[in-house]
# Entry
Amino acid sequence: MKKSMQAAILKKAKQIEVQEVARPQVENEEVLIRVKAVGVCGSDAHFYRDGRLAGWIVKEPLILGHECAGEIAEVGRSVEEFQVGDRVIIEPGVPCRRCEWCKRGEYNLCPDIRFMAVPGVDGAFAEYVSSEADFVYPLPDSVSYEEGALMEPLSVAIETIKSAKIELGDSVAILGAGPIGILCLQAARAAGATDIYITDVDENRLSYVTTKFNPTLAINAQKKDVVGEIKKITSGRGVDVILEAAGTIETFKVTPKIAKKGGMIVLVGIPPFREFPFQASQLFDQAVQLRTIFRYTNTFPTAIRLVDKGMVDLKSLITHRFSLDKTKEALELTMNREDGVIKAVVIP
Amino acid sequence: MKKSMQAAILKKAKQIEVQEVARPQVENEEVLIRVKAVGVCGSDAHFYRDGRLAGWIVKEPLILGHECAGEIAEVGRSVEEFQVGDRVIIEPGVPCRRCEWCKRGEYNLCPDIRFMAVPGVDGAFAEYVSSEADFVYPLPDSVSYEEGALMEPLSVAIETIKSAKIELGDSVAILGAGPIGILCLQAARAAGATDIYITDVDENRLSYVTTKFNPTLAINAQKKDVVGEIKKITSGRGVDVILEAAGTIETFKVTPKIAKKGGMIVLVGIPPFREFPFQASQLFDQAVQLRTIFRYTNTFPTAIRLVDKGMVDLKSLITHRFSLDKTKEALELTMNREDGVIKAVVIP
Amino acid sequence: MKKSMQAAILKKAKQIEVQEVARPQVENEEVLIRVKAVGVCGSDAHFYRDGRLAGWIVKEPLILGHECAGEIAEVGRSVEEFQVGDRVIIEPGVPCRRCEWCKRGEYNLCPDIRFMAVPGVDGAFAEYVSSEADFVYPLPDSVSYEEGALMEPLSVAIETIKSAKIELGDSVAILGAGPIGILCLQAARAAGATDIYITDVDENRLSYVTTKFNPTLAINAQKKDVVGEIKKITSGRGVDVILEAAGTIETFKVTPKIAKKGGMIVLVGIPPFREFPFQASQLFDQAVQLRTIFRYTNTFPTAIRLVDKGMVDLKSLITHRFSLDKTKEALELTMNREDGVIKAVVIP
Amino acid sequence: MKKSMQAAILKKAKQIEVQEVARPQVENEEVLIRVKAVGVCGSDAHFYRDGRLAGWIVKEPLILGHECAGEIAEVGRSVEEFQVGDRVIIEPGVPCRRCEWCKRGEYNLCPDIRFMAVPGVDGAFAEYVSSEADFVYPLPDSVSYEEGALMEPLSVAIETIKSAKIELGDSVAILGAGPIGILCLQAARAAGATDIYITDVDENRLSYVTTKFNPTLAINAQKKDVVGEIKKITSGRGVDVILEAAGTIETFKVTPKIAKKGGMIVLVGIPPFREFPFQASQLFDQAVQLRTIFRYTNTFPTAIRLVDKGMVDLKSLITHRFSLDKTKEALELTMNREDGVIKAVVIP
# Structure
């Protein structure tokens, strides 16, 4: 195997170059993976557009991409659970295993986690990527590499649904019908939610979601009053669980207004604004709980089983495919939400 | 409306007579219900066979039947939420609303609960039955009275699944493929379990369950080694949640042997034997949790939504129908598990 | 017993008159209580000052006061658990017992709860008050009426600590050293918190709290940088649980900045401002949970046991006593936080 | 530093020899600890008496002792958090950090955990012991080495109290007043239990416990009827939480009989008998939950804080001290429960 590989390198904002770089080395407990499919995440598009995201700044060239499926190309000396040729997916964050959060099972909060495609750790828009073996999972034959790549955003949805403590018979409102919103819809139903409302401002997207994923009600927030519609369909009670997956100030404001008394609001993903637009009295009047989601823990095995059993449909999210050469186009498309894109995948 | 009604009265063990008795009166906060369908429960069959069950003894004539759907025939003066003619189902236990358990929402444990078809409170094998209005729920048009009657055993299954804290991706083993086992199977899947194993000793029942309810694996415990089969399919790890729904000493013994380390065992229904056959060391080695289920709280609205949305199939459980005159035959059939019975329903 | 009684009536903002009014009648399941001590709550002072609080407006004359201990003066016909002369305290909200929240044990959220001293339901600044018997609790001989009156704010603290899920060894920061803050401090310690930090802007109050209730650290937020101090004492990690008990915009802003990753913020009491001043990115970076507290459920028996066993000290909170005639002065003192008041009690 | 050390070696049942053996080497991420105090655990005494415990068999010479405090003697190359001379305690089990249990924070269930003084891993009845640095904790100056050694059994008690989900105001019955029972008593009180009952059959031990640790009630199970006494003091309701810490068939039988409806039974430590003596109907009638405890996770920092703050008293448990030469005598004393021993400590 040659020691170099092709990779799409982010040099600075809006500048991506595909070039030959050194192939990752494999330590004793690691495996090398021949990348077969990489999903394009909103965070990749943010890094591409701005050269930064939240507190992270791209100062050195960086390979983006952290939603990754592939084939085992090499195994470290201590690795027994994989063989060359195995079909796998990667959980892209490897924690320190030693801090108090790791020991409590909250390794997503590990201060020393190394997460792919965050400045300092290269990602998967490349021919190869390496990972510690215990953060790599076998991909069942029933599941394609493309679907495998989408296990990562599905993991975010699973973490969301578990944190929301959704139970049999709950009602759920999902604000935002992007990939995370759609995966939350599917994971909420798989967890027993019986009434699922989803909102967005893009009519095409709502039509697509309605056709493919069958929500109880899809509301176009530009044409209808979300609070009024949800009050009407819930006889004034509001919903048990609200999942904010749009990251806009308007959707944040809606959350406590549609919560049932004692309900749960879960905020998925980091919003672009600084101050919270909640009206305090609403939060108190409804006695809601509020949680934020930061990545996930122990979700990949669940994600794989849900897809393998047909309880979640990942195929229908994939609207566009690009070769590694066209990574820039994939990022542009995702950034601009053009051409009805829901999820773009890069196939190296 | 006449002041009397036909009812099937249990006089003593194995003696049921259908005769004319006084119709229940309706208090201010009560409704009268014209019974349309009543499921036959194993506990009804036990009372019929033995004249007793657990600590309860039938000393006075008793009307059995507590799985009941019907039509509102009369409303008390303070009742605003129902009108004559409404299609409804009944939650058969009305608690005191004042004790510490009621105030904590654990009203199933209320020491003063009045539960239908337990000595002292007449049940629903009759033309009419009364109930406090807030323990009566509207039945959607999409759901038949027969299905409505089965919301009560479905409630037991929902309570079981909630107590078991089943999460997305869990594996579940259900010991016993009777009505409760089948409903647990369906509720577990609705709650996100991806791998569901069910065992029984009746090949016909297992075939029926496999055809209708699609478990991951159905195991005939008379022909195969349940522990071995489950160890094999779980690569030696055992399952996350075990639901004991057969009430036999053999199935109890199996539970800790098939649990994953840290797993959960839930015991549904009262077994006929006195001492627990667990091997203590197994319970400790596996660090399992163990819970018992006693009826349910706040499950009826969930049950209705699950059936209304098609997430649980009650129709396929109903194998036999009897008129009120034939209540005795319905009880005999259930008691003897004859003719491939899964669930018998009495239609007054 | 005469049919009238003396009561302090709020006519409109800042206008209290003590006058003779009809004594409450006792229904079958109620008891009449001769009031012995009533605590003055911040909400009483708000109603007094403004004639309103949050969404409630005083349109009819209203008796304030909902922190009440007294002696049984009369028992309704169905009441068996009390006798005339019994020393008791009152839980001041009686819910409907029938709605979904009541049945789940979340009766604090009952939309039809009747809560004392909220417009529509008279309170306890009077010679007598009535209550349903199951919301009345025996007061142990070891506990004075004055302390008994303070079981109500202690209940708020207990609800807070339970909602915060405080565990053995947790660190807790309490923002605000008023009565609720002090009771949270004591309840947090009783629940196993080992490191308790408390802040306020009133040096006298902090001295008092330090002397009487022994926090790990008391911080004067006017003189020191709360965030810096807490980061220093926690080696930069932040605290497990933050309890906001001051209701100011400054303290709200502090909460996510001092939370440990994965920590819990609990907001006690309704703040006077409309929009939340949290910086969104902080809430996300720290992956915190956030809850609001609205009254309490099932806390009175716990409150009584904690005080009876000496695990919480209520005596040291009581700084001022007034006769019923001086209710206005008690409210003024509480409103203006004069004379080092922590808690004023009216003794009718 | 010399390369050998003195250690007390278990050769086979009842045969201990103190001899010179190789000193442990220190890997990169490890520290070497000069042992200052080691508590004698019941499991050490079992291994000594029988040469085996549960499924473990002593086939090779083994150093016992896993309750250990000492001084850092050497640090591995990658260790930054400790210096030679630091006073520390050891958490005696180091898990694999890679399996599903480790990643969930349930590292006590790790199948590949290396636990001191279990066949295959030497313990601390020796001059030196090594450990991975992140399972070593600084001992505050306020806490002696002897007390430090007892942080390990305190960890078992903390795990028990957390698993029991003890809340403010709970009542707790502890069956067995040995070291674990006494530590459970103290941890339960620290967690907010207000009513704590403890039973034993040894009058001297009960007197000691009553004097030093102030339970609500101490019951001599040989002289009094435990069930009757607890029913009496709880007005027939039973207790919220029962902790079985004696490991006898009689105490196991008692547990469901004294549980409140909906209560929690926690079994601490592995009993010597095979089949559970519970009466099934009692477990069901009371609708109890039941858990077993296997070691602990994330408890050491809590243990240290509780002792440092004076919320748990370890000193009063230590009744006997032995030199390393007298390890055999320490084990004999513990095994035979002679001379009023509660806890013996070996001081190398």
Summary: Chain B has two domains: 4-150+314-347, 157-292.
